[in-house]
């Protein structure tokens, strides 16, 4: 909360931080510390990607989402929810983002060697600030060439905040990547500014229903209606729909009945280190097997 207040204060005074109270001061120094730490962490290899399975209706693994973890020497595992906003604000997300993409591509290359993992897609979160870089598309294409990863197996997760940008520019970048086979998913869908006319114009493959709607889908009629609307919208626009934050069999059943294509959440697995993810894939039913 203190971090958030700091964030807002900084927004109010663009050309310098303004200190309102000691609590905020503490947040500022914690943030500065975190910023210096991120720089070190990249150098010392403290970041690691975890992989959370994405499955179809039969429980067959069709891919994963790469989720960043920071193994901090004194603080332990620091959540991305805490340090990604700091990295975005400081601009370090650009360096970190390159590292993430290279690590993700390297993982795809490793998966390509095993028939069980060869066809898996890997979804990588991209922050708006990264995507706004003029050379974003070329950067990804260079990374694919450099690593030899299959572009058709790479999926980029964008958030709705991008829709507030120059939409033509967004479309140009997405189209350049899509021409090479890279897929796009709209993350946390339903929580941001969605204009349906914008949505129609974007070269997307998938909508990702935000976990906040999935959480209470069985008890809150509004959330149930929102989930059903997103599933219907996906169908109308010819987009796949994945649900995130699926924790119970009842939630999955609701989603299955309403035509959801794919699922991700603790019901299947938490995000796993690469070796455990591999074990998970090998323990799961093959495509088309009965659930
Ligand atoms: P996200 O992209 O929406 O990722 C989904 C978050 O939900 C992840 O949190 C995941 O661990 C969590 N989750 C998955 N299944 C469940 C479930 O069944 N129940 C609940 N309660 N939570 C579930 P995580 O890993 O802490 O990441 C938080 C956010 O940090 C991500 O939200 C994403 O916005 C950001 N992030 C993570 N990794 C990266 C990255 O490599 N790059 C960028 N730019 N952002 C990242
Ligand atoms: Mg995501
Ligand atoms: Mg999400
Ligand atoms: Mg989310």
From TrEMBL:
<feature type="domain" description="EAL">
    <location>
        <begin position="31"/>
        <end position="285"/>
    </location>
</feature>
<protein>
    <submittedName>
        <fullName>EAL domain-containing protein</fullName>
    </submittedName>
</protein>
């Amino acid at each position: 909360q203190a971090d958030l207040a700091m964030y807002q204060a900084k927004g109010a005074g663009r050309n310098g931080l303004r200190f309102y109270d000691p609590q905020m001061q503490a947040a500022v120094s914690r943030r500065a510390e975190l910023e210096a730490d991120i720089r070190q962490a990249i150098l010392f290899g403290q970041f690691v990607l975890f992989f959370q399975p994405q499955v179809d209706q039969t429980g067959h693994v069709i891919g994963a989402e790469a989720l960043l973890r920071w193994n901090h020497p004194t603080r332990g595992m620091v959540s991305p929810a805490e340090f990604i906003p700091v990295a975005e604000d400081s601009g370090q997300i650009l360096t970190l983002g390159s590292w993430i993409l290279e690590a993700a591509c390297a993982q795809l290359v490793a998966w390509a060697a095993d028939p069980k993992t060869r066809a898996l897609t890997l979804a990588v979160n991209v922050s708006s600030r990264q995507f706004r870089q003029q050379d974003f598309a070329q950067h990804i294409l260079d990374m694919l060439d450099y690593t030899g990863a299959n572009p058709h197996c790479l999926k980029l997760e964008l958030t709705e905040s991008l829709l507030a940008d120059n939409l033509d520019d967004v479309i140009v970048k997405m189209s350049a990547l899509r021409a090479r086979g890279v897929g796009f998913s709209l993350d946390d869908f339903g929580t941001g500014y969605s204009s349906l006319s914008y949505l129609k114009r974007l070269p997307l493959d998938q909508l990702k229903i935000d976990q906040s709607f999935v959480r209470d889908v069985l008890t809150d009629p509004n959330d149930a209606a929102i989930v059903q609307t997103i599933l219907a919208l996906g169908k109308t626009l010819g987009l796949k729909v994945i649900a995130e934050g699926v924790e119970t069999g009842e939630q999955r059943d609701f989603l299955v009945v309403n035509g959801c294509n794919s699922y991700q959440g603790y019901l299947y697995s938490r995000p796993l280190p690469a070796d455990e993810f591999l074990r998970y894939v090998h323990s799961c039913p093959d495509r088309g097997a009965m659930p």
